[in-house]
Each structure stands twice: as structure tokens, then as C-alpha cells.
Write a structure and sequence with these properties.
Elements lengths: L3 H10 L9 H11 L6 H19 L9 E2 L12 E8 L3 E10 L2 E11 L2 H5 L2 H18 L6 E8 L3 E5 L2 E4 L16 H12 L3 E8 L1 H12 L3 E7 L3 E8 L15 E5 L17 H9 L7 H6 L4 H14 L20 H13 L3 H8 L7 H33 L3 E7 L1 H5 L3 H12 L4 E6 L3 H20 L1
Parallel strand pairs: 2-5, 5-8, 9-12, 12-13
Antiparallel strand pairs: 1-11, 2-3, 3-4, 6-7, 9-10, 10-11
Helix pairs in contact: 3-13, 5-6, 7-16, 8-10, 10-11, 10-13, 11-12, 11-13, 13-15
């Protein structure tokens, strides 16, 4: 017999029943989507696997979780003072930011965006870093600060191995970047060299981080209990504060650090096959349609890059089975990538509001004029896929909270999916509470960790350096 919490968890995971007048059709659709629903027993099994993968990763054993040491051993404490730069590189556009901090509070913030042309993203890395340095220099000179020593935090949102707070070795390019001669090189050193060749500013690169780490840091300026950072956008990742004595990968000399931020790199959770038991036929097709097959397993279940594609694949299957859009066909819906995750969020908003407006507008883009049952089915599919994503994220966050054993933890979250999806936050609050009822937690939206967070990490790096000198 299930204990009350398990029963409530089991029942809460089940989304509302599909309301159709045709009982046979309703049952066929429900049966097909059963594979998308996770039971409470499956949720607990995933928790155990995630816990095991974390422990293996932190002890340098084979694991699908990288558990990378960021070498950031403390959070903002309100003493941060001065001018700090951030360079935020993660896509075809990047930003340079200037922050002025007084008693840890941002009193001035200047930002400029720049575009990276395709040839710079795909040729030798030297011109790319020359261009980054040029933009940083131009920005600093435009601020009239070329003669001021400015510490810079470098947000480099690509998989990397860190050997210290200011050494980040690129493992692989992602997104639209492919400069082969940068792989296995230190991105920080390449930026430092490019700035030194110019010699027209006094910018000092003092830290490298990714956007997830920056989100935790930015969250800590909003809430002192922040100890987990989460990105839930096009991609997904999480990081958390770990006890330093548990971390085996630590290359520089230790200086009595009590804790350190660990970058989990959970997008790859399951790349070694440990999550294959929840992989549906729709996930297999989603993976086959992706650029990097058999990788980023967890990200393909939950992130904004893939959630819309999962929904599209299910809708196409229902259409081919004669269960959806029976009065018409849609060739454009057959195109992989055509049903973006923004559409899922819009349709979910209709479900929340009890209306059909956005659903009709989205389907019109595919030249579909739906009847009432079509709309109910499409909304149901979006709910099932979204609910599974929320549950999977919650399972891992609940496991983290249990692992950390803190009295109270605030989880700082950023990302377009979290921001725009109308139900993810409420589902996550519900599921985390059910999965770990003894833990006190809170979700907050921490915007621009990749920018502000990076500048604050530069301030922390400077504080640590001055303390050791």
C-alpha cells in the first residue's frame, strides 16, 4: 500500500483526462500517450539513478554527469565594490557589460550587444577571439575607461573542463559554432592573448563560468538562501553549492574552502543509457531528428529546443492513425522542427484560461482549421509533454535538495521556457514538495546571470585574490 505522500504524488502526476465524446478515440489516444506518463515508482527510480550518477561524477568515476568544479568557493556577501566587466558569449550574438557595485548593489549598468558573423563562428578561432577583444576594447574606450584596470568575468556557455577559476578548456562547440582549432584549448587564454595584442585597455580576465553558474550567483544577490542555479530555456543545466571536502577534482592549492559551486551539466544525464527505460517511441524519433544523436539525453526530454518537436511528433502520429485532423492533412506539420516550443506555451496558456484562441492561431500556421475535438486533443498533448518535462526537472531538483541537506534552499532559475511557459513553475513547486516534503525551498527568477552574474563573479575572484596575496 502506498503511503499518503506517494499516493498523492502518483495521482498528481496524472494529467486531467481527455474529454472527448467518442470514447473509443479517447481511449486510443490515452493508451498511446501512456508511455509519456511517469508513475511515482518511476519517479523514485529516476531519483535513485540521478543520485548515483552525481556521486560517481563527484568521485571521478564514469558517469553521465560531468560534475565540473567551477572553483567558485563563495557567494556574493555585499562587500563587492568597484567597476567590473562581463563578456557573455553563448550564441550568434554576444554582450559586453559594465557593472558598478557599491556594497554589493548594482548602481550602474551599461550593456552593448554585438553580432558574430558566420565566418567567424566556423573558421579558425584566432579571428573570433580577435573580434571579441576588439568589441571589448571598443566598449571600454567608449566608456572612457581605457586607463582603468577592469576585472572581467567571461561567460563561456559551451562545455568546458575547468582547471581553475580562470582556466576553461573547450570540450566541444555547440549551437552554430565550429572553430576546430579552439577545441581542447583554454578559451580564457585565447581571450587574454587577443586583448594583450591590442594593448589599448587594462582589461584583466579573472574568471570563466557558464550561464548556469552565473544564474546561481545572480540569485544569491536577490536571496541569501540561493544554493542552486537552474537554466530552463533552449537548453537546460543546473549547478549547486557542494561541500568542498566532497570534491575530489581540485587542481590548484586548496585554501580552506568550505564549499564550491559544482556545475552538474545535467543535459547529458542518461547519455550512458541509464534513462533508456523512460525513452518513448516519440523520444527516439526526436533524437533521430536532432543534430547530435545519442547525446544530451535529458535535455531532449525537458528543454525548449526539443519540447515542441516532441509535441509535433505525437501530433503527426495521431494524424497518421486517423485520430486527429481527420477532415484535412497538413504537410507543413510533417517537417521536423516546424512546431516550436513557443507554440506549446501558447497552447498551454489556453488550457489555463479555458479558451481556444492561441490554439486556433497556432494551428492556422499549419493551414489547419480544427474542430472542437482537435483542439482538445492538441491541448492534451501539450499538457502531457509539458507535465513530463516539469516532473523530470523536479525529480532532479528534489534529489539535489536531499543531497545538500540544508535547512532552506532558494533555487535561482532563468531561461525562456521557464519564463514563458504558464505552468512549469506551479508544477515544479508541487512536484518538488511531494518528492521531498521535509525540505524547505523556493523558486525565484534570476534574470541575466550570464551578464550580471559574470561581473559579480569577477568581483568575487578579485576578493579571493586579494585575500591570498
Amino acid at each position: 500500500m502506498m503511503v499518503p505522500t506517494e499516493r498523492v504524488l502518483h495521482e498528481s502526476i496524472q494529467v486531467n483526462a481527455l474529454d472527448l465524446t467518442d470514447d473509443v478515440k479517447r481511449q486510443k489516444i490515452a493508451n498511446l500517450l501512456t508511455q509519456m506518463r511517469l508513475s511515482s515508482a518511476t519517479a523514485r527510480k529516476i531519483q535513485d539513478i540521478f543520485r548515483s550518477e552525481m556521486n560517481k561524477g563527484i568521485h571521478l568515476q564514469p558517469s553521465s554527469l560531468q560534475m565540473e568544479n567551477t572553483y567558485i568557493p563563495e557567494l556574493p556577501d555585499g562587500t563587492e565594490e568597484g567597476l567590473f566587466l562581463a563578456l557573455d558569449l553563448g550564441g550568434t550574438n554576444f554582450r559586453v557589460l559594465l557593472l558598478e557595485l557599491v556594497n554589493g548593489v548594482v548602481v550602474r549598468e551599461d550593456v552593448k550587444k554585438y553580432h558574430i558573423d558566420a565566418h567567424l563562428r566556423t573558421d579558425s578561432g584566432i579571428p573570433l577571439f580577435e573580434y571579441l577583444a576588439e568589441c571589448v576594447s571598443n566598449f571600454v574606450i567608449s566608456e572612457g575607461l581605457q586607463d582603468v584596470e577592469l576585472p572581467l568575468g567571461f561567460t563561456f556557455s559551451f562545455p568546458m573542463i575547468q582547471h581553475s577559476l580562470e582556466i576553461g578548456i573547450l570540450v566541444t562547440w555547440t549551437k552554430s559554432f565550429n572553430c576546430p582549432d579552439v577545441v581542447n584549448k583554454d578559451a580564457v587564454q585565447l581571450l587574454k592573448d587577443a586583448l594583450a595584442r591590442r594593448g589599448d585597455t587594462r582589461v584583466k580576465v579573472v574568471a570563466v563560468l557558464n550561464d548556469t553558474t552565473g544564474t546561481l550567483i545572480q540569485g544569491a544577490t536577490q536571496d541569501r538562501h540561493t544554493a542552486i542555479g537552474l537554466i530552463l530555456g533552449t537548453g537546460s543545466n543546473a549547478c549547486y553549492l557542494e561541500r568542498a571536502d566532497k570534491v575530489e577534482h581540485w587542481e590548484p592549492e586548496r585554501h580552506g574552502e568550505r564549499e564550491v559551486i559544482i556545475d552538474i551539466e545535467w543535459g547529458a544525464f542518461g547519455d550512458n543509457g541509464v534513462l533508456d527505460f523512460i525513452k518513448t517511441e516519440f523520444d527516439l524519433e526526436n533524437d533521430a531528428n536532432s543534430l547530435m544523436v545519442n547525446s544530451f539525453t535529458f535535455e531532449k526530454y525537458i528543454s525548449g529546443k526539443y519540447l515542441g518537436e516532441i509535441v509535433r511528433i505525437i501530433l503527426v502520429r495521431l494524424m497518421k492513425d486517423g485520430l486527429l485532423f481527420t477532415r484535412q492533412t497538413s504537410e507543413s506539420l510533417l517537417i521536423p522542427g516546424s512546431f516550436i516550443t513557443d507554440y506549446v506555451s501558447l497552447i498551454e496558456q489556453d488550457t489555463v484560461d479555458g479558451c481556444w484562441l492561441h490554439t486556433k492561431e497556432v494551428l492556422a500556421k499549419f493551414h489547419i482549421v480544427p474542430d472542437e475535438e482537435d483542439i482538445k486533443i492538441v491541448q492534451y498533448v501539450c499538457e502531457v509533454a509539458s507535465n513530463r518535462a516539469a516532473l523530470l526537472v523536479s525529480i532532479c531538483l528534489a534529489t539535489l535538495l536531499d543531497h545538500m541537506e540544508r535547512e532552506e534552499v532558494t533555487i535561482a532559475v532563468d531561461g525562456s521556457l521557464y519564463k514563458h511557459h504558464p505552468r512549469l513553475e506551479s508544477w515544479m513547486n508541487k512536484y518538488i514538495s511531494l518528492l521531498t516534503p521535509a525540505r524547505k525551498f523556493k523558486l525565484i527568477h534570476a534574470q541575466d546571470g550570464s551578464g550580471k552574474g559574470a561581473a559579480i563573479v569577477a568581483a568575487i575572484a578579485l576578493r579571493i585574490k586579494s585575500r591570498l596575496e
